[in-house]
């Protein structure tokens, strides 16, 4: 689980801080959208289709670092690349 936190949350947020310094409006607008989409897709996916190595009673709990870190930051990064 510690590896999931580092890869899925800490490393993407280092990039997220850089994006926030460059364009704060982008992060403020698209971060909540990315989090909502990540939670929706991962909740359905973890309950029916896939799983991670560490599993809890609530199946989508193991994807929490990815839902709050990697997927929303990738959403903002893609929008940032479209903008430029």
Which helices and strands appear, and what pairs or packs with what?
Elements (H helix, E strand, L loop, with lengths): L1 H21 L1 H25 L15 H20 L1
Q: How many DSSP-defined strands?
A: 0
The termini sit apart by 35 Å
Major β-sheet profile? none
Q: What general outline do the C-alpha atoms trace?
A: elongated
> Whole-number radius of gyration?
13 Å
Stretches with pLDDT under 50, minimum 5 residues: none
Classify the secondary structure makeup into a structural class: mainly alpha
Q: Supply the number of helical segments.
A: 3
Helicity range: over 70%
Overall average residue pLDDT: 87
Describe the structure.
This protein is mostly helical. The chain has one domain (2-83). It has three helices and no strands. The protein has helices at residues 2-22, 24-48, 64-83. Helix 2 (24-48) crosses helix 3 (64-83). The longest helix is centred in the middle third of the chain and has 25 residues, at 24-48.
Features:
84 residues
Structure, briefly:
With 84 residues, the chain is mostly helical. It has three helices and no strands.
């Amino acid at each position: 689980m510690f590896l999931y936190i580092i890869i899925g949350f800490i490393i993407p947020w280092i990039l997220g801080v850089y994006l926030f310094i460059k364009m704060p409006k982008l992060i403020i607008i698209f971060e909540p959208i990315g989090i909502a989409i990540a939670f929706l897709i991962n909740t359905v996916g973890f309950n029916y289709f896939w799983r991670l190595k560490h599993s809890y009673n609530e199946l989508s709990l193991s994807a929490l670092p990815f839902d709050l870190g990697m997927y929303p930051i990738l959403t903002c990064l893609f929008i940032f690349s479209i903008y430029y």
